[in-house]
From TrEMBL:
Pfam families, per the entry: TacA1
GO aspect biological process, one term: regulation of DNA-templated transcription
Originating organism: Salmonella enterica subsp. enterica serovar Alachua str. R6-377
Protein name, UniProt field: DUF1778 domain-containing protein
Family as reported in the entry's similarity comment: Belongs to the TacA antitoxin family.
InterPro entries tied to this protein: Ribbon_hlx_hlx (IPR010985), TacA_1-like (IPR014795)
Sorted UniProt keywords: Toxin-antitoxin system
SUPFAM superfamilies: Ribbon-helix-helix
Length: 129
């Protein structure tokens, strides 16, 4: 653990590489900094993900992390979080084919006349306001 100029312990990241057949497993141990007023346990992240990757993928990730001035852990976490947000956003969008799109647009352009139940609901809403 290295001592930061302010007297606090700086985080240290120690990657360890273990050769497994033709793949590499990258283990990253993160020691979290301890700051006064913050309990040590609350400062620790409690979840972890282990993965296996090829030599080429590992080299590419290391190079990209170095270019962006991030640790491998920071780079992988940021990249995965960004991609997860994209996937979730795409999943939440409605994707329609031409025929379905035309039906939706037609329904918006020519809404059906409200029935009695809808009229009563609208009246109750107005009364509440």
């Amino acid at each position: 653990i290295s001592k930061a100029p302010s007297g606090f312990f700086a985080p240290v990241i120690r990657p360890m590489l273990k050769k497994i057949s033709r793949r590499n497993t990258l283990y990253v141990r993160c020691i979290t900094a301890h700051y006064p007023g913050v309990s040590f346990m609350s400062a620790l992240k409690k979840q972890r993900i282990d993965l296996r990757l090829t030599d080429g993928d590992k080299s590419m990730i290391e190079e990209a992390a170095a270019i962006t001035n991030q640790s491998i852990t920071q780079f992988m976490l940021n990249s995965a979080a960004e991609r997860a947000a994209e996937v979730l956003e795409q999943h939440r969008r409605v994707i329609l084919n031409e025929a379905s799109w035309a039906r939706v647009m037609d329904a918006l352009s020519h809404p059906p006349t409200p029935n009695e139940k809808l009229k009563r609901a609208a009246q109750r809403l107005q009364d509440m306001e």
